[in-house]
Amino acid sequence: MIDNPKKQAVLNKVISSSVFCDADKYCNLLTYLVESKLKNIVPKEYSIAIDFFGRKKDFNPSDDTIVRYYMYRLRKMIKKYYETEGKNDKYELIIPKGHYEVKFIQHEHVRIKFYKNQWVIGFVFFSLLALSSYLFIKNRSLTGPASQIDTAIHKGDPVWSDFFSNDLPTSLLIGDHFLYTEYDSLLDRSRFQIDYTITNNIAFNALVKAHPKRILRSSDIGDLPHNSIFNLHDLEHVFYSFNHDPDIEFTSDKMSAPTDLINIADRNLIYIGGFRNLRQLEQIFTKLPITYEYTDTFRGKLIIGDDRRDTTYVFESRLESETPQGSTYLDLGIIIKLPGPNRENYLFFIGFAYPAQIETVRMFSRQESLSKIYNEVLNQNDAFPNYFMMVVKVTSFEYFAHDTKICYFRELFTD
Question: What is the tens place of the pLDDT at every residue in 317-365?
């Protein structure tokens, strides 16, 4: 626990640094935010504009972005301080994206020593696996012909060719789980927690407010979905086939604040994960006739309105059977390909549970399985459309799929 005198000392050290030496406005802004924290006041954009910047009471943040501009620069300066003069500080102050409340945490090099438990070791292990796969994609030679891969994707593939013909960079976004820590007084240490109902900072702040006696702190990192490393391996075939390198990022880092939509302009996107972990990406397809709800931890219901047939389709994942040898589940996966506002292409692989998330990517990353998909769709359509929505039923054990079936397909944006 960091008491108020220590918080004040952290502030004084930051604003006395060379990074802030010629930036009085930013020193004053950070001091204002820290003083609000010490008074247990959570400042809002409106109150900062009125109280600190002297704007009038009719201030409209849609027309005047002064607060967001200064906060963006302030976060950059804080980051620079902890990368230079403050890299060995015991404590660190941060201002999470999309929020204006200052948080005080143990600095990263201290926390690495502090959180010595099996969960963290496992997390680091899988993170290193993901990183190694990323480096493998980035560093292996892409100069050889794609035919060197047995399952190379055809250059004119209806789904993938658009991503590699518009000369835009491509981001592969992994929908990681929201992660936070809670201090355990019996163990005298903090432990990482995942709550599947807590998917963003708004829900987390509501949790903190509802339980003021619990010592909760949001994490700077998220939790990788189970087996997501295999999706990176599957998509390697796609990127290699088109001699293309992706940028691999997490939605918790890339898409946590409303303004983060600016980060994806002029960029193709491929998303892998659950509905819970879309974060701001969800805004991209809010106009589609899709609603969803989670019925429990790993299952959910998908509702699709189809005005062409004046019909509503309802699909639900569920427990199929329980035997002494194990349980089988029906999971739902949805694949959506959309156009961006400019020349971008967006492709979503979404599942309620891990089997659908894993298997839908696998279906679309091999030429053999892609050909089966195209043949099935072409039985009822003249051509495979550029933009579409597909629902796949995945029969699986706990984490591994053993059967898939396309149960709904629809062309999008035909007007």
Answer: 888 777 766 778 888 999 999 998 888 999 999 988 888 888 999 999 9
Q: Are residues 89 and 204 in the same domain?
A: no
CA distances from 39 to 35, 43, 202, 209, 257 (A): 6, 11, 21, 15, 25
Contact 26, 77 (CB under 8 A): yes
Backbone angles phi, psi at 314, to 5 degrees: -120, 125
Reduced to 3 states (helix: H, G, I; strand: E, B; else coil), residue 393 is strand
Nearest of 331, 356, 357 to residue 232 by alpha carbon = 357
Angle between helices 24-38 and 4-15 (to 10 degrees): 170
Asked whether residue 71 falls in the same domain as residue 81, the answer is yes
Instruction: Supply the pLDDT for residue 343.
Output: 85
Domain co-membership, 76 together with 166? no
Does any domain span residue 305?
A: yes
Distance CA 282, CA 88 (A): 38
Neighbours of 373 (CB within 10 A): 20
- Compute the distance between CA of residue 405 and CA of residue 115 in angstroms, rounded to an integer: 43
User: Which of 188, 215, 250 lies closest to 103 in space, CA to CA?
Assistant: 215
Last residue of a domain, one of 187, 218, 249: 218
Three state DSSP letters for 259-281: HHHHHHCCCEEEEEECHHHCHHH
Same domain, 161 and 301: yes
Number of domains in the chain: 3
Same domain, 95 and 148: no
Report if pTM > 0.70: no
CA–CA gap between residue 197 and residue 210 (Å, rounded): 14
pLDDT digits (tens, 9 = 90+) for 111-161: 433 333 444 444 444 555 555 554 544 454 433 444 344 468 888 899 999
**Residues 155, 242: contact at Cβ < 8 Å?**
yes
Segment of 28-37, 191-200, 316-325 carrying the highest mean pLDDT: 28-37
Same domain, 270 and 316: yes
